[in-house]
What does this fold into?
Amino acid sequence: MDFACNSSARLNCYKINTEDTGGNIDMYSDKVMDHFQNPRNVGEIENASGVGTVGNAKCGDIMRMYLDIDDNGIIQDCKFKTFGCGAAVATSSMATELVKGKTIQQALEVTNKAVMDALDGLPPVKVHCSLLAEEAIHAALWDYAEKHGIKIEGLEKPKSDISEEEVEEEY
It folds into this structure.
């Protein structure tokens, strides 16, 4: 197992768990490796419009997503903090890129499959990381809705632990 820390985000240390991919780091696409080694939008947003935290008790990954949403319902900024494997960092990073500049409804439509596709895929044992990213977006939107006393059409209360109903997907 190799470890890496991003110096721009001192609190974010991550592991590349090659045991899960049979010791073969080549199972990760170039995009996954790029978003792991150079994660975008790491950090916190002070006075965020919405903050969502989700985790996976089985693997120990924890993801926190921060959203800054303007009065027109446009996500102006999105940041994350993640403790977990390289795939968790990469999916967090990509998820922030996918929702920035989008409306609330468009952000709600970002699925784990969209995150995986944007990263050119994930090994099957890492699909749960993309589920975390999707659920973190939903959790931050849920927090935003609760703070503003609104209902977001199509948004259901997110799970704080995705391992409760984790579904293996083939990709």
